Amino acid sequence: MQNKWVILIVEDENGISNFISAILTSNQYQVIKCQKGTEAVSMTASYCPDLILLDLGLPDMDGLDVLQAIRQWSEVPIIVVTARSNESEKVKALDFGADDYITKPFGTQELLARIRTAIRHKQKVSSYNPLETDKIHIGDLVVDIIKRTVSVDGKPVHLTPIEYKIVLLLSKHAGKVLTLDAISKEIWGPYTNEQNALRVNMANIRRKIESNPAAPRYILTEVGVGYRMVEE
Ligand code: CA
Question: Rounded to the nearest 5°, which phi and psi values hold at 173?
Answer without folding.
Answer: -110, 30
